[in-house]
Amino acid sequence: MHLPYTSYMPGLTWQLATILVGLFGILWWLKRNWRLPPGPWSLPLVGYLPFMDPKQPYRTLSDLARKYGPIYFLRLGCVKTVVVTDPMIIKNALNRNDFTARADLYVTHGIMGGYGLIAAEGEKWKEQRKFVLNTLKSLGMVKLGTKRKDLEERILVGVRKAVFDISDCSGKPVNTQEILLNSLGNVVNSIVLGKTWRNKDPQWIYLKELIKTGVHLVGISGAANFLPFLRWLPFYKESIKYLLDGMKSTHKIYNKLYELRSVQDDCDDILSFYKKELATGNNTHFSMKQMYHVLADLCGAGTDTTLATLRWFFLYLAVKPDIQRKVQEELDSVLKERDVPCLDDMQYLPYTEACLKEAQRIRSVVPLGIPHGTWADTELAGYRIPKGTMLLPVQWAVHMNPDVWKYPEIFQPERFLDENNKTNNKHTHFMPFQIGKRMCLGDELARMLMFLFGAGIIKVFNVTLDRAATPEEVDEILQGICGITLEPGEHQLKFTFRKEPKIEYRPEVYY
Questions:
Q1: Of 35, 234, 407, 412, which sees the most CB atoms within 10 A?
Q2: Of 207, 302, 211, 288, whose CA–CA distance to 255 is shortest?
Q3: Which of 88, 44, 45 lies closest to 380, judged by CA?
Q4: Whether the predicted pLDDT of 27 surpasses 50
Q5: Residue 510 backbone zone (phi > 0: left; psi -120 to 50: alpha; other: beta)
Q6: Residues whose CB falls within 8 Å of the CB of residue 420, separated by 6 or more in sequence, listed in order
Q7: Letter string b/e over residues 73-101, b meaning 16 or more CB atoms within 10 A of that residue's CB
Q8: Which DSSP helix (H) or strand (E) runs through 79?
Q9: Cβ 454 vs Cβ 313: under 8 Å
Q10: Within a 10 A sphere around the Cβ of 470, how many other Cβ atoms?
Q11: 3-class secondary structure for 394-436?
């Protein structure tokens, strides 16, 4: 018996409605994901975050590249993300204006508010970058000239201090972070702020703690960048408060230094140049708040990245005594009786330079790369990249690609030497300072610092681990700890004199 028309019509209508909703959903999904790069499925709200290794997120992203290719798409919380691991695609993207924005993350847009160099975008970023780059060149960050010699001597003051502080430990195990932060950090302070502090000055102790803890907290608080509701949970709330309080305190210190500086003084630091520029009133994006953030970016990033590389350099030389001997033999043959190197020595020390490069490769200081953002809908490698997408150029994947670097986990400086044992500076899969329009503007200064500190210390001292460690313990140290930067695991090193140095150091003269 057939049911009356009116009895089955409502059920049929419901079925049609369900089908239509499903079709609209499919069309919406297709439009949203049309021509996006391939990538893994993500969960609602949290995206792919639950599947990321919280300690080594760069390994997760590198592993995904082996499955989905050198460019792929995923969602990190509410942030659309394109991950790139091929250097040619990275170069193509980062040389284009489309990708010079910053992703809308809480650190860059919330805490930093778009100020400074790291977080700035558009015309503000262009103006401030040009000013800082020109200022660094006027202070000696150039290939030739008397200014370069002045900057060299400024750095060597810090090298002498590092040698003095290490020798003062009388061969006892030391934390290289603390030793190098006092000397290297004060070189950066001198260049940026025109101010140095003694090791135990309370203000300097506070600033050092901000550098160490703040960088680590930003890394830990990373998930709060992608999931706004986390910022109200106690742990993240406390971390963010620490960062905000530290920022305010640092800005007060900068303001006091600013007030003590006269526009009539000779400019030999970035703060002085900035004060003179503010006095002209000619530039749109110069302000006190912008200055505070620029100084903080230069002091923080300039110190932390170079410090991390030097710590890796000394650690690997301690683990590889045969390589350490080769470095010291090369230094002895070039420097002879001199304990202190100069920048002109660099061209005659290819193996030493290769070791520093290998330290940068094997443990990328910024393994995830510095995230970029897109200004508008664009294309990359044939794929559609929507406006507001975060672009991650994963340095770890580039530097540890086994198809390019044979046995990438082995520390092998010869990778950076050509057939004539000269330094190879043209390796396309090596980009420690990133690349493109927003590459590190202090790359030349960083090279000077790494070479003079690295060569200057290893010329004077033998370096060893503080105790006999098992291969498993050494491997754990070498895995590193990831915040913003990748630092070695907890360890101490012993520095013992190769011979009594001739360096004269009088603390009251320098700091």
A1: 412
A2: 288
A3: 88
A4: no
A5: alpha
A6: none
A7: bbbbbebbbbbbbbbebbbebbebebbbb
A8: strand 79-84
A9: yes
A10: 8
A11: CHHHHHCCCCCCCCCCCCCHHHHECCCCCECCCCCCCCCCCCC
Q: Name the amino acid, one letter, at 230.
A: L
Residue 452: partners with Cβ closer than 8 Å, 6 or more residues away: 152, 155, 156, 159, 341, 342, 343
Instruction: Kindly report the three-state secondary structure assignment for every residue of 157-200.
Output: HHHHHHHHHHHCCCCCCECHHHHHHHHHHHHHHHHHHCCCCCCC
Q: Is 480 left (phi over 0), alpha (psi -120 to 50) or beta?
A: left
Q: pTM score, two decimals?
A: 0.91
Q: Is 339 helix (H, G, I), strand (E, B) or coil?
A: coil
Say if residues 155 and 448 touch (Cβ distance below 8 Å): yes
In this prediction, residue 419 carries a pLDDT of: 87
DSSP 225-266: HH-GGGGGSHHHHHHHHHHHHHHHHHHHHHHHHHHH--TTS-
Per-residue pLDDT of 49-80, as tens digits, reads 999 998 999 999 999 999 999 999 999 998 99
Closest to 273 (Cα-Cα) out of 306, 283, 253: 283
Residues 254-286: pLDDT tens digits?
999 999 988 777 789 999 999 999 998 777 899
- Here the tokens at position 112 are 């930093």
